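User: My instructor asked us to take a sequence, write out its structure as tokens, and then describe one feature of it. I'm not sure where to start. Here is the sequence I was given:
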Amino acid sequence: MIYIEDKSFDKIDFQAEQLEIGEYDNCIFSNCNFSNADLSDILFSDCEFIECNLSLTKLINTAFRDIKFNTCKILGLQFESCNEFGLSLFFDSCLLNNSSFFEISIKKTIFKSSQLQEVDFTGCNLTGSIFLNCDLTGSIFNNSILEKVDFRTSSSYSIDPENNRIRKAKFSLQDISGLLDKHDIIIEK
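Assistant: Let's start with the prediction itself. The structure tokens for your sequence are:
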């Protein structure tokens, strides 16, 4: 298994050229295409992905430790397939539609200015996470731990307080209706 440190990868198509299995520490991947690639059994530590396409990438036992995704297209990823040990993620201006965080723990994760439509957070532990200016249209929160999660600047969420742990979670008054969706009531200003 190889070990690569402090290396920059720019404009590489990893659909055509498989990323070698190994450990990537403090690397930067910029404008790379990982769409439909296989990143299974690779360890990424303190890496940054900038303007990359990671849509439908295979992540079986992939380790993401202190990883930043900036302006990335991350459609349909199954994060629950990742190695959960040390799993730490940060998303800024990303498209995460149709991805899944099913039953994993991603405490204190920051989702900033990202689109998270139809994302599955079922059974996910998001304690202390922040959704800053995010679109959560159609995302699923069921049996999720949302304690101390900040939703104040995000919109279009639908969260059932009876099926999720939301103690000390923060919501804005204008989007509070997302906690009442199951009652099919009309709220007017």
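For the description part of your assignment, you could build on this observation: Residues 112 and 145 are 19 Å apart (CA to CA). Try explaining in your own words what that tells you about the chain.
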